[in-house]
């Protein structure tokens, strides 16, 4: 089949479509359920007679309550990502968001009370052993205690968020979903979606790549006023909130949420930037592989093989399945279910969100995977990545509950990137001829440079933007200048960029959706390289340790989870080790070329 035609997810596990009466019912009953919960527990958690049993019951009730909110929220969002042009879905998303905000306000007291339980009482409760499944959840929630406002203040923040931050995020999504491009290809004018246009960034035709890249980034430039407004407002909004809460830096809440020590992230980013020369070395090698004097920005994703052979969805599916099954039959069986039970939406169609994601709602529900499969090797890698996430969710769902099944952000990309390594292993073992090796090695290196070096550059830009934009309103040109400074640090003089590429900061949705998310990719990829090294040394003895790591979800500090597999992320060598693996791959590729 072409472009996974007909491979669409089945949302019936959630609801029977947008008009399912039980969807409307669930949204409407949310507030009542929250009020009931409030009536039962308000003031009880911090009361002197609170007991371990009461606290346990409250946590379990809270999980049930939150799940009843997540279901309609997931349905609305999945429908909307499936077709961003539908007014009906837009209205549904707005309705759910509104209900969820009111729901959040009714239940807000609970987290605040959990934060205010006196240390001594909590230690006594934990000592009973009854709260063990929630011990880490409580510990990490209490990291935020010094930065939490009073209940009425938190409620106002929540309500204002809907027409503040959330409104800007929605505007960004709805606006970019309307983007279409008219492009002349081989004498014929074609209308292209974002995914289809981005596919042309990987075309073997250099002129077409340049045309597509110019059109793509140029479109964002045409609307620079809107994008600099959206981004600038989100930055200012965050700065105001940081000040009110007493955070020391814009990235501090992300570190706390990730449970990533600031110094560890700093070391990781410094080691990464110190290895920028590897990226530049690769770009010069790639220019040679493409027979170009120098790489242009539009050539970064050009295929190195003369003709990239198509990989149908069926072939891609088989490759991914076998990669996981070859590591562990249990993993293979879980991936098989994703396809058999229609947890995945893979076809390309107008209005569908570009890119890819895996959405995990609750441990009682399976994950939902979205990809835009376009019959090439990259699509297969994207699928391996997202299915790695799905595997992670399924394993964590078995042993964790709603509050602890989502891996902390810095470990969230573990199974996904490891899944890509398993695919690489499978591909290299199958067809070791020179052409194929070149293709796979360069594709893998580009991937690592994309997830490690480029995401660190994104994070450095984002830090600069928050630093400057927190103080004063930045113009679109100022955003461009901050962008160019960090981009040029990464690539040096190894690439000639197109003028339109200065707008690329407005293309990256993470800056809008999930502030400072990008370093989690760097963390994930370098951590996976360390894990993969371990797997190569230990063989099958490694499999159960890795499985336990995934099943642990968010039940302990990342440092401890990493220690359990025998690694220490405090050390500079832990991070540098990843670059040694990369350098070996680069050496091999240079030899082959
Ligand atoms: Zn991912």
Describe the structure.
- The two termini are 34 Å apart.
- A hairpin with a 2-residue loop joins strand 1 (181-185) and strand 2 (188-192).
- The chain folds into 3 domains: 16-163, Oligopeptidase f, N-terminal domain (Butyryl-CoA Dehydrogenase, subunit A, domain 3), CATH 1.20.140; 173-293 and 450-513, no CATH class; 313-442 and 523-592, Orthogonal Bundle (Neurolysin, domain 3).
- It has helices spanning 21-41, 52-82, 87-116, 119-127, 135-141, 151-163, 165-177, 194-199, 206-222, 224-245, 252-258, 262-274, 276-289, 313-327, 329-340, 377-399, 409-412, 414-430, 434-469, 476-491, 510-513, 519-538, 542-551, 558-564, 572-592; strands at residues 181-185, 188-192, 295-296, 344-345, 357-359, 368-370, 495-496.
- It has a 3-stranded mixed beta sheet with strand order 4-6-5, sandwiched between helices. It has a two-stranded antiparallel sheet with strand order 1-2.
- It contains 25 helices and 7 strands.
- It is globular.
- The mean pLDDT is 94.
- By secondary structure, it is mainly alpha-helical.
- The longest helix has 36 residues, at 434-469.
- The structure holds zinc ion.
- Zinc ion (ZN) is lined by residues 385, 389, 413, 416.
């Amino acid at each position: 089949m072409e472009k996974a035609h007909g491979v669409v997810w089945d949302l019936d596990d959630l609801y029977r479509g947008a008009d399912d009466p039980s969807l409307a019912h669930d949204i409407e009953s949310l507030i009542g359920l929250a009020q009931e919960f409030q009536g039962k527990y308000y003031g009880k958690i911090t009361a002197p007679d609170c007991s371990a049993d009461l606290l346990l019951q409250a946590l379990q009730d809270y999980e049930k309550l939150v799940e009843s909110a997540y279901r309609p929220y997931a349905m609305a969002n999945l429908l909307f990502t499936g077709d961003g042009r539908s007014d009906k879905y837009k209205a549904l998303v707005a309705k759910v968001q509104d209900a969820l905000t009111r729901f959040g306000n009714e239940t807000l007291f609970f987290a605040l009370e959990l934060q205010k339980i006196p240390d001594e009482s909590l230690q006594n409760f934990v000592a009973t052993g009854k709260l063990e499944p929630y011990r880490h959840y409580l510990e990490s929630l209490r990291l935020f205690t010094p930065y939490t406002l009073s209940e009425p203040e938190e409620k106002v923040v929540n309500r204002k968020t809907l027409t503040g931050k959330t409104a800007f995020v929605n505007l960004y999504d709805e606006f970019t979903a309307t983007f279409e491009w008219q492009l002349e290809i081989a004498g014929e004018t074609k209308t292209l979606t974002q995914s289809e246009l981005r596919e042309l960034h990987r075309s073997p035709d250099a002129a077409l790549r340049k045309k597509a890249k110019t059109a793509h980034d140029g479109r964002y430039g045409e609307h620079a006023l809107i994008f600099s407004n959206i981004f600038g407002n989100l930055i200012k909004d965050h700065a105001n909130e940081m000040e009110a809460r007493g955070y020391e830096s814009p990235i501090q809440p992300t570190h706390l949420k990730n449970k990533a020590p600031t110094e560890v992230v700093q070391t990781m980013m410094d080691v990464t930037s110190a290895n920028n020369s590897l990226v530049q070395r690769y770009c010069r090698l790639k220019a040679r592989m493409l027979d170009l004097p120098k790489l242009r920005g539009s050539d970064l994703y050009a295929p190195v093989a003369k003709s990239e052979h198509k990989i149908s969805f069926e072939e891609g599916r088989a490759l991914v399945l076998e990669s996981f099954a070859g590591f562990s039959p249990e993993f293979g069986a879980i991936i098989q279910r994703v396809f058999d039970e229609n947890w995945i939406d893979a076809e390309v169609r107008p209005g569908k969100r570009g890119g890819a994601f895996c959405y995990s709602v609750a441990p009682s529900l399976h994950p939902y995977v979205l990809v835009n499969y376009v019959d090439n090797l990259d699509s297969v890698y994207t699928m391996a990545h997202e299915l790695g996430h799905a595997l992670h969710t399924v394993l964590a769902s078995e042993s964790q509950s709603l509050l602890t099944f989502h891996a902390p952000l810095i470990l969230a990309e573990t199974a996904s990137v490891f899944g890509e390594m398993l695919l690489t292993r499978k591909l290299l073992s199958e067809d070791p001829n020179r052409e194929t090796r070149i293709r796979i090695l360069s594709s893998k290196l580009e991937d690592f440079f994309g997830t490690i070096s480029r995401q660190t550059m994104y994070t450095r830009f984002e830090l600069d933007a928050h630093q400057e934009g927190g103080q004063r309103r930045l113009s679109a040109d100022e955003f461009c200048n901050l962008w160019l400074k960090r981009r040029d640090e990464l690539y040096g003089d190894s690439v000639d960029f197109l003028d339109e590429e200065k707008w690329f900061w407005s293309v990256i949705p993470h800056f809008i959706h999930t502030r400072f998310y990008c370093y989690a990719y760097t963390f994930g990829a370098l951590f996976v390289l360390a894990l993969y090294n371990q797997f190569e040394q230990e063989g099958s003895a490694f499999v159960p340790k890795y499985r336990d790591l995934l099943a642990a979800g968010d039940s302990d500090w990342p440092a401890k989870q990493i220690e359990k597999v025998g690694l220490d992320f405090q050390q500079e060598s832990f991070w540098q080790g990843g670059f040694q693996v990369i350098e070996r791959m680069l050496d091999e590729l240079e030899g082959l070329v």
